[in-house]
Amino acid sequence: MKQVIIIRSDIKMGKGKACSQVAHGSLHAYKIALKKFPEKVHQWEKEGEKKIILKADENELLRIYEESLSLNLPVALIRDAGLTQVEPGTITALAIGPYDEDILDKLTGHLKLY
Predict the structure, then answer these.
(1) What is the pTM of this model?
(2) Which of 27, 62, 86, 95 is the most buried (most CB within 10 A)?
(3) How far is CA 9 from each of CA 12, 44, 60, rounded to the nearest angstrom?
(4) Number of C-beta neighbours around residue 18 at 10 A
């Protein structure tokens, strides 16, 4: 079990901004997963709450988002409020899971670490 968070690589965000977007994504996807797949969340928690942070451009991030939706995965697309570094509504991150590691690897295994 793991959770994957993908940060946009094609926009300028400071490290702190990127970290906050990861946190938003992680928490939002967790809440979705807890409602849809509580048994998977509990297993993930028992296994140490594994997370991986990857990077992708907007097109690839949206492709993975659509595929995640079609597979009924717990997924959260993060849009920024635009109060600091990016325009309002800018997609900054995508979080998937917690869910089965092998399924998430099929979706995101080709991406590089952030």
Answers:
(1) 0.94
(2) 95
(3) 8, 27, 10
(4) 20
Exposure pattern of 25-40 as b/e (b: 16+ CB <10 Å)? bbebbbebbeeebeeb
pLDDT digits (tens, 9 = 90+) for 44-100: 999 999 999 999 999 999 999 999 999 999 999 999 988 788 888 999 999 999 999
Alpha helix segments (H runs only) across the chain:
15-36, 38-46, 58-70, 101-108
Angle formed by the axes of helices 15-36 and 38-46, to 10°? 130
* CB contact at 8 A, 4 and 104: yes
Q: By CB neighbour count within 10 A (0-12 exposed, 13-18 middle, 19+ buried), where does 95 fall?
A: buried
Q: What share of the chain is helix, strand, coil (3-state, %, to 5)?
A: 45, 25, 30
Beta bridge partners of residue 96, listed in sequence order = 4, 75
Q: DSSP code of 108? A: H
